[in-house]
Amino acid sequence: MQALTSRAKQVDRKPMTFIESIYLWNIIKGMIITFKHIWKRKETVKYPEQKREFSPVFRGLHILNRDAEGRENCTACGLCAVACPAEAITMEAAERKAGEEHLYREEKYAARYEINMLRCIFCGFCEEACPKDAIYLTETFAPANYKREGFIYGKQDLLIPTPAEKNKA
Amino acid sequence: MTIDWFFILEKIVLISGVLAISLVVAMYSTWGERKVAGIIQDRIGPNRAGFMGLLQPLADGGKLFFKEEIIPGNSNRFLFILGPSLAMIVACMTSAVIPWGDTLTIAGHTVSLQIADVNIGILYIFGVVSLGVYGIMLGGWASNNKYSLLASIRAASQIISYELAMGLSLIALLMMTGTLSLKEIVEQQRHDGWNVLYQPLGFLIFLVCSFAECNRTPFDLAEAESELNGGYHLEYSSMKLGFYLFAEYINMFISSALMSSLYFGGYSFPGMDSLGLAPNLVTILGTAALFIKIICFLFFFMWVRWTIPRFRYDQLMRLGWNIMIPLALANMLITGAIVLYRSTH
């Protein structure tokens, strides 16, 4: 029969030699191995002080983007909610009134936009589906809260600050 | 009859000291265990609570105190509480006959750093240690849980099996030294060299058996969590669980002290009598030497734990009855022949 893989290794079924059968020698060999690990490099990342470098495609918590003038990009088309396999996104659309042109880029905007971070699987499909460059996944991760309700992120949690707010801060 | 107040004071101080030291050592063994485990597995171990995680045992103890105390409804309440108490008391009692050092001279009084130099010290230790299994047995049985019961049956049969080989290996040592007093055994080693040189096989058997007696890996079948959901202390919570875990570490400490005293010269160290220092200083150095030996043994216990996987139960029993006891008997026979040959020539 042809081997399925080139890495197949014949199992050694020779009867144990005397040294092997008294078991003590193998224990000593094992102890030497563990003892050598005392000087090995420690793999621990001391998390809050030290952070692991993320890969460029890391997908963390979402943000809602604004354009250069600080207007919301989202038009509440609902494509992200359709793309979402975990059904974590809900939104309510509203029509832009006169005088709100500095707030919303197009005539339709999301009055309510919620992502349930407990449902979200951080697949990034919303980001891919968005035709308006409105939603992005960031490198922020590990949200913490005392209650489940706290994990439903609304617009105030998701929207990035406007340029004016950014300058103030 | 006048009461020797100095003697009473001396013993009270000594008892409290030894008790406090064994508790602190047991406490920091838990820290050491986690550090050793971490380092051997390329991690760094606890490092958050205090410098190098040194406050971790206090945090763990505090946590255990504040945990909810649960006594199962169908358990035998009295025995359920008696179990961990017995385990703890028995673990602490053994330290009474271990010579922690030579004598100190304080204000004209000679103070022996041994709580009780009874002439049957080793017998006392064996008597007390075999009581230790009652703590586990009672706890497991009173829990009214089949896993706990199975684990405690395992522990009981394991301890009884290995105590035999342990006793037999000690008999060989006793034939050589001719005394049951630990102090005298240490004093003999001070002059004639460490017993491990004369009794290497006996020491090996004693070492393996003390692993089994302490329920330490690779003989921790009583706590085989993958088979028994946690072992004999499955139903225990809060500080009663803490007592069981703590008793294990105290037992480890005491058996390390015992092995150091029986086979590695106890408080004596090479060149002890040719230093030319004050006797009190030599005594303190000797006690320090004993503690270094104990720490080495404690490290060895941990090192073995993070290297060797657990035995299967039938392997454990076969090792105990088919290998350890015949070996110990052979060791006894050879020692006896040599002792006889020496006494007639």
UniProtKB/TrEMBL annotation, chain B:
Function of the protein: NDH-1 shuttles electrons from NADH, via FMN and iron-sulfur (Fe-S) centers, to quinones in the respiratory chain. The immediate electron acceptor for the enzyme in this species is believed to be ubiquinone. Couples the redox reaction to proton translocation (for every two electrons transferred, four hydrogen ions are translocated across the cytoplasmic membrane), and thus conserves the redox energy in a proton gradient. This subunit may bind ubiquinone.
HAMAP family associated with the record: NDH1_NuoH
Species of the source: Chitinophaga pinensis (strain ATCC 43595 / DSM 2588 / LMG 13176 / NBRC 15968 / NCIMB 11800 / UQM 2034)
Gene (UniProt): nuoH
Matching InterPro entries: NADH_UbQ_OxRdtase_su1/FPO, NADH_UbQ_OxRdtase_su1_CS
Reaction catalysis annotation: a quinone + NADH + 5 H(+)(in) = a quinol + NAD(+) + 4 H(+)(out)
Protein's name in the database: NADH-quinone oxidoreductase subunit H
Gene Ontology annotations of biological process type: aerobic respiration
EC number(s) from the headed UniProt entry: 7.1.1.-
Quaternary structure, from the entry: NDH-1 is composed of 14 different subunits. Subunits NuoA, H, J, K, L, M, N constitute the membrane sector of the complex.
Alphabetically ordered keywords of this record: Cell inner membrane, Cell membrane, Membrane, NAD, Oxidoreductase, Quinone, Translocase, Transmembrane, Transmembrane helix, Ubiquinone
Family classification: Belongs to the complex I subunit 1 family.
Subcellular location: Cell inner membrane; Cell membrane; Membrane
Any one GO molecular function term: quinone binding
Keyword NAD: yes
